[in-house]
Write the structure tokens for this entry.
Amino acid sequence: MSATSQTGNNGLPEIVTSTVAPKTARQRWISAFTTTDHKRIGRLFIGTAFGFFIVGGTEAVLLRLQLGVANNSLITPDHYNQLFTMHGTTMMFLFLTPMVIGLANYILPLQLGARRTAFPRIGALAYWLFLAGGIALYATLLFTPPEAGWTSYPPLSSAEFSPSAGQDHWIYLFLLTGLSALLSSINFIATSITMRAPGMSWSRVPVFAWTILAYAGLTIVALPVAAGAASMLLFDRNFGTSFFDPTAGGSPLLWQDLFWFFGQPQSYMALLPAFGIVTEVLAVFAGKASGTQKAITRSVLLIAGLSLLTWGSRMFTTGGSNTLNGIFMITTLLVFVPTVSIIFSWLSMLNKGAIVTSSPFLYAAGFVSVFVFGTLTGLFLAIFPVDWQLDDTAFVTAQFHYTVAAGAIFGLLAALHYWYPKLSGRLVSESLAKVAFWLIFAGFNITFLVQYSLGLDGMPARIYEYSTTSGWGAESLISTVGSVLLSIGILIAAVNFIRSYTNGALAGPDPWTGNTLEWFTPSPPPEHNFDVVPTVHSVEPMRDIRAEIARSSTGV
Amino acid sequence: MTVLLALLVAPSGASAITAVPRSGGSSNADSIAELYKIILAISVVIFLAVEGFLIRALLKYRASNGAVAQETSVTPRSEIGWAIGATVLVAVLAALTFIKLPSIADTPAGKTITVNVTGRQYIWRFTYGNTLTSPFTYTQMVVPSDTVVVLKIQSTDVIHSWWIPALGGKTDAIPGNTTSTWFKAPTPKSPEGDLYNGQSAQLGGRQFANMLASVRVLTPAAYAVWLAKQTAELKAANKQSFDTRKKLTQDGQIPNLSPAP
Ligand code: HEM
């Protein structure tokens, strides 16, 4: 077999590194800023994004504390609007997307058997742009944060109704993080095209890598449209144009079309990598190879394509023609078809498996169980006359969190638990991880399940108070209690990560008996990743390598 | 957990879990609720089947119980099967929607009045007619029962969303556009009329939470009385203001005089 030419000595990899002179403290500091190593960039992204996750979560708990009882005066109306704007914006653009980008930076080249990304310096630039975006948004804490929601609908977000510079900073954040995502996407696509290991044909590319490609492709198609809209809003606000100003012939609905052309796929963009992660984790912890992987990959690509045609489903209440509403209903319902295929593939993967319930698996299975609920309740929002009742209510908040935020919380925590040993070289405490998981799982469902009911009962999203006669008090309080449990769970997970970084048991290269090439490298991998890049013969090369090692050590 | 459950069923005005959107004030709201219930029934079945399968697999196939993994691969056949199943399901849902749509979207024939609804930060204004002297109210709309009420919805500043849940779905109030919806409420049980409550559903600024709205439905006879009274009062007020202005102008205190109402 051709692998023997690359892996001498009975199929075992040769060690070809020489010793590297240790860096001085000063060199280490400088290299922290100048690094182009995809793994260090990945870690910067992951660490910073996790920090923003904690910040956004804190904002969410403050929101829930205000809504816990009727007529509460804990938070003023302006602060309430600022908090949900900051929460939504932070979670979408400073946590979810950069966490996906961080994981992709770290893992994608390893999975592909590459020693670096195609454009290492662009990869680094993307991080600093993202950080600049985060600073631009949070600098508004010094004056007035934006308060028009993460969707920033004009005219509310125009200079007339949102005079503070906070709204301009929201636009800066959008453009900076958008550019970061765009550059990263180009880097991921170029890396995947040009730097795959020998033998890794497209059909042997692992599912996580495929989902990153789908994410990157969608970003490149959809994001520039919204970036254009954000620039137009900036011009409207500062340079006297009137793209969105109805009093001067502009159209507020134009913003909604352009924003949702990106914003609706954005929800899927963030979910697709979560699908990839969950697929790999379920396969590894159910002891299966990826027999379902091709079906899932096909469905992921189909969702990516269809999602570009669904933006109108966010605009059913704007009084457009019902023919158009009907078309968007059908495209949105069609997304349901590949989604079903993915869910059933996961189920058949678990069926007749040999399941090990380690922490990554718990989060992945937790994702599947809540995501099924989110998908089914999404049907109601796709059926446009029913959406007329549900749109802009707590029902939408619930459904959004059961899908996108579930992908972010459960999917990305599954990823972080799964790849933590690779990143840090150490294992997290499993018992602490389980406590955290069950708190998060219970807290999540308690927080958001009742929100469906509140929405059906007439509670709009984004209101800062409600009266005692509304009848929303009991469920709101339950939701608030749930959000506290949820955030305690997240904090325990964070503590676990931090403690295990120095105290965890050593993981070794492949603690989970993984299927993909990242587990071929030491944990954490050296700067050049692979001493020898193995030749790939299937979609789960680590199985082949393990089999080869077993063969050679038994002397067959 | 028990505390939470106790809270759920607690009396004292606290509502229990709501599983269906409100209806009962107008046939379009009723149709939406019916469509909703069909989807609900279908999704409950799918939900129980999928979660049941998931939980069974999670409990049964544990490595710690000595389970041995059997390789699965999704065959093209099962993939196509799922796709056909899901497509049939969404086709049925889409078909049902289009069947129900006329009863939700189309304004029924019969006695009709039009009310102009104008949203602005943070109050709704209702104008009963199209002239400057038409009667108007704020926050509470008054309408006759058993009459089709067509709403022409506008905004003078930011986007708001008109929504009285029991009377049907939302319609956005968009500056520069006029959108429209309708409802037809049943005969009220009491002489003061029936009251339907709602509030704006689209973020309109800081006091958006208090952009409340209600609709009071009177019998057509009571409505006619109400409208006549409003018209007369408005006319008297306009007349009074005209007279005052006229007097002030004659006294030379203000220069201009708008035409008589
Ligand atoms: C940590 C747990 C979380 C809690 C307790 C939470 C809670 C909330 C609440 C209560 C609201 C509604 C505010 C309102 O309508 O008045 C909200 C809105 C929102 N959340 Fe979360 N959330 C969490 C995580 C996330 C995550 C992970 C994401 C992103 C993927 C996310 C994205 C959003 C968005 C986009 C909004 C809408 C913001 C807006 O109205 O402009 N949330 N969240």
